[in-house]
Amino acid sequence: MLDALGERYGMLPSKVLEQANTLDLWVFDVAVSYKNHVQEIEMRKHDKNRAATMDPQTLQKGLEKFRGSKNK
Fold it and tell me: How many CA atoms lie within 13 A of 31 on its CB side?
């Protein structure tokens, strides 16, 4: 976390330790949590769209390939 805060503010980790306070930590945590939340939503949208556009034959071939690789 120190490295990420330092990178964000352009400070060395020692300076972050010296100057940062709990508000900085809270803001950083909220920002990272929100960014991860947005990325997760986008990933879910992408995964749903991908599965919906694949035809059943392609899915069946992929399943057979997967099952065949497990038996080796």
Answer: 10
